[in-house]
Amino acid sequence: MERLQTILLVAGLGFFLFSALIMGVWPYTLLKDVPVASLEELAKDIHPSFNDLSQRYPEVFSEYYGQPNEAAYAKALERGRDIYIAEACWHCHSQQIRPVSNESLRFGPVSRAGEYQNVLQLPQLLGTRRVGPDLSRESGKRSNDWHAAHLYEPTWVVPVSVMPSYKWFFETRVNDEGDARIVPNEDGLAVIAYLQWLGSWSEIPPATFYNAGQVIGEGGK
Amino acid sequence: MTSITMSGAPTAAVTARSLVNRPLVHAHLLAGIGWFLVAILAGLLFSTQFVRHYLFPDQELLSPGRVRMVHTHLVAFGFIFNCLLGGMIWAVPRLCGQRILSDKLGWLIFGVWQAIMLSAMAGILAGHGQGVEWGENPTWIDPFVVVGWVLVVTNLIVPILRSREKNLYVSIWYFLAAFIWTALTYVMGNFFVQYWVPGVSGAAVTGLYIHDLVGLFVTPIGWGLMYYFVPVILKRPVWSHAMSLIGFWGLAFFYPLNGVHHYLYSPIPMYVQYGAVVSTIAVELVVTTVVINFFMTIRFDFDTLRTSLPMRWFYTGMVLYFITCLQCAFQTTLTFQKIIHFTDWVVAHAHLVMFGVFSFWIFGIIVHLWPKLTGRQWASRRLNEWHYWLSMIGLVIMFFDLTIAGLVQGFSWKALSPWEESIVASIPFWWVRAFSGVMISAGALCLVSNIALTARRPVTEMAPELQPATT
Ligand code: HEM
Asked: What integer pLDDT is reported at residue A204 of this predicted model?
């Protein structure tokens, strides 16, 4: 029985707690003084693209989110994050730029620990696989329209894309003249707002955007 | 060292009558195979997205991302969990000479677990997935999983406590440690990461979770079962008991320290990352002890590989295990990480270890146990052979294909080519992957049809426990 207790207590409990201590608790204590921003705090900085959404899709926007104010922004961000999780976008996209492999040239400034200290990173979404590109500097890189078209049918804007289409983020609205228009629904608006938020806190714009082998834009580094 | 190891521990209890609840083992293995089918179907379905021929486009309930989560979740908790549990319900009573605590509890766990799996699958498809890799079941299921595991442990630890063997066989060491590790790991990944630890520190803990699920749940139980079944089938004790103990303590100490290697070059403090790299390399040395022990137990008895299908599955798994671990020691280095992280290389590695190693061992156990569980000889040796060859060749194709794809992707990204270019370059590889998936699925169908055919045969073989006791 002596052996049994050794196995349970030393190997089972002891070594496990040791690993959790130095691999989990220690990094945690380093960051514990950096406050974790709440949703309300995050939503104070309304990104201009959110206003743009409200003007571009006024009918659906006001129906689902009312005015483009802080409360609406908070609601959209949280819902967007939830959908990002539920659809496993995070299994195909990372939110983490490494200091190697020219990633800062491709995507923008290398990720820093402080950027993740907020409730939208609970659970964290750094990701471990990239079928599509990193999204942590997505804010402002594309227009709302581009995102809407891309989510509806990715191959319309990127013909070779293997990203799934998300038709259920959209609904059909008929206006007074009887014209039908496909517009983002509550989920679609939320996802676009979330994508446009990702990296919006980064004061430095992405260094360089590469497209079809050509530099199409340059910012500070 | 002890009589139990010298005489080939596993046979110690064979004479006792009806030690094992065979219908329960049978049920767990069957359920595991059932979930395996669903899981690979999901994998296959998801792989069609990568070649732009998704079979059910624009169906919200079959959204590719959700199907991917079903794939990995069912592989781990539906297939591997059920089969390892079945293996333990077979091995623990025989090693300890004691029945499990309660058959009723065993059946309750069986039912509850399948219900958990069904609701996890339904929940993920309905869009309630949790954002934790390998913990994707909806959050409300997590407490049930924890309770379920506590019941599993209760049922299996009692025979160990009641055992009159003075020295515990090494398999039991692994099981005991896994009882605690699995509980802690699950709570760490599904509660701490979900509710309390955000951002980068959350990533560090998630890394521990992903890795501990492989290293502290699947690995120790898998090794424990190998240390049981290999000597039983060869009728020969393991080569070195001392070596198996080195393996145990090495695993216990180094494996938990590996987790952060899933997030190298992330903003997690660098010393933690270095620690993870070093202990990952250490684990590979530890693993080598198990592999050596196994090969020395077989020695040069290569004829067994031709005649005994279970041994062939075990052997193949061991060879692949060695390759996996060798690969691991390289790919965890920061040099490799620059290129291969985020690419299909990692997916190749994941399939090599989860399918090529642990699933192969499980198949060996299934092939070995089936006649003992059902009292019926396998209906068709040929179907079993087909199952083996299709799975093995399918896996090898998938592995090389995705490994090369990973390198292509990694270098393409580093070269700053447009993202589309890496997609275009990957699509041929993704076709091959889908094709290898079809092979693996065909192999699984051979197993299933063989099981169905076997069920129709007359009962010819009496399980040892049912024969009158001779001593
Ligand atoms: C029909 C055969 C199979 C096919 C077509 C298949 C396909 C896939 C696909 C497409 C992915 C996602 C990869 C990505 O994100 O890029 C995946 C991931 C995974 N599969 Fe499979 N799979 C198959 C069988 C299996 C089996 C038998 C197992 C284990 C027993 C398994 C374990 C895993 C694991 C652990 C991952 C996660 C990999 C990672 O995140 O790095 N798969 N599979």
From this structure: 55
Identify whether A123 is preceded by a cis peptide bond (ω within 30 of 0): yes
Q: What is the ipTM of this complex?
A: 0.91
Q: Describe chain B by its helix, strand, coil percentages, rounded to 5.
A: 80, 0, 20
What are the backbone angles phi and psi of residue A136, rounded to the nearest 5°?
-75, -10
Name the closest-CA residue to atom 8, ligand 1.
Answer: B43
Token look-up 């590790």 returns B181
Q: How far is the CA of B364 from the centre of ligand 1 (A)?
A: 21
Beta strand residue intervals within B94-146, DSSP E = none
Residues written for chain B: 471
State the DSSP code for A138.
-
Q: Is B160 on the interface with A (CB under 8 A)?
A: yes
Query: How close does chain B come to A51, measured CA to CA in Å?
Result: 28
Atom of ligand 1 nearest to the CA of B394: 2
Bridge partner residues of A37 (DSSP): A118
How far apart are the C-alpha atoms of B133 and B265, rounded to whole Å?
19
Pairwise CA distance, residues A11 & A20, whole Å? 13
Average pLDDT taken over every residue of chain A = 89
pLDDT at B211 over 80: yes
Structure-block tokens of residue A126: 């750094």
DSSP result, B252-272: HHHGGGGGGGGGTTSSS-HHH
Cα separation of A130 and B30, whole Å?
35
B48 lines ligand 1 (CB under 6 A): no
Question: Rounded to an integer, what distance in angstroms lies between the CA atom of residue A160 and that of residue A156?
Answer: 9
CA B294 to centroid of ligand 1, rounded, Å:
28
Distance from Cα B401 to the centre of ligand 1, integer Å? 13
CA nearest B272: which of A55, A50, A19?
A19
Q: Measuring CA to CA, how many Å separate B222 from each of A153, B145, B216?
A: 44, 20, 10
Could you identify the atom of ligand 1 that is nearest to the CA of residue A129? 15
* Strand runs labelled E in B139-204: none
Average pLDDT of A144-149? 96
Percentage of chain B beyond pLDDT 90 is 82
Protein residue with its CA nearest to atom 40 in ligand 1: B347
CB atoms inside a 10 Å sphere around CB B32: 22
* Contact state of A20 with B253 under an 8 Å Cβ cutoff: no
Residue pair B465/B18 in contact (Cβ under 8 Å)? The answer is yes
Residues 305-324 of B with CB under 8 A from A: none
Q: Tell me yes or no: is domain A35-197 CATH 1.10.760.10.
A: yes
Closest CA to A7 of B245, B8, B226, B147: B245
For residues B245 and B237, is the Cβ–Cβ distance under 8 A? no
Span B234-264, pLDDT tens digits? 988 999 988 888 899 999 999 999 989 999 9
- Domain extent listing, chain A: 35-197
CB B340 within 8 A of CB B426: no
Interface of B with A in 328-367 (CB under 8 A): 337-339, 341-343, 346-347
- pTM score, whole prediction: 0.93
